[in-house]
Amino acid sequence: xxxxxxxxxxxxxxxxxxxxxxxxxxxxxxxxxxxxxxxxxxxxxxxxxxxxxxxxxxxxxxxxxxxxxxxxxxxxxxxxx
Length: 81
What we know:
Order of helices and strands: EEHHHH
Number of domains: 1
Number of strands: 2
Mean pLDDT: 86
Helix content: 40-55%
Distance between the termini: 46 Å
Radius of gyration: 14 Å
Shape: elongated
Oligomer: single chain
Strand content: 5-15%
Low-confidence stretches: none
């Protein structure tokens, strides 16, 4: 299914990019911008972003692994001290 009409990005493209990024770096924070860049494209009108994000969140590999969550949270809170 086409998710982004401006760039002709499908749900399969998004899932493949998310899986690739998670395999390359299991602890990475995956954002819509990173997915667009991984696909060699940029967001244009932004109309697709809600569906784009929903598609990303449905990927099994989208979630940050449990062992990485504590380190991410600690790093964020240490900067506030």
